[in-house]
Write the structure tokens for this entry.
Amino acid sequence: KYVIHRTFTNKKGVSVRKAPKIQRLVTPLTLQRKRARRAEKMNSVLRNKEEAAAYKKVVAQRMSEQKEARRSLISKRRSTRKSTKMSVDPPAKS
């Protein structure tokens, strides 16, 4: 009932059905398992995409925070350097 048969016509013109010696049975259960495997793969792909997007978002946020911290540090250094320059009087030209 579930055996895979191949129908063809031989050289004499007679229609013949052939089946493999080791029978691959296509039962409703095997089809159900195949569907489940395919669905699991698709769910895995979708889940990986979502997780990758979330990870990318977190990485971008952390990079922006690092850039902002670096900018504030540099501006702080510049401001302290300016204030020290202002406090020290430049030599007067004569």
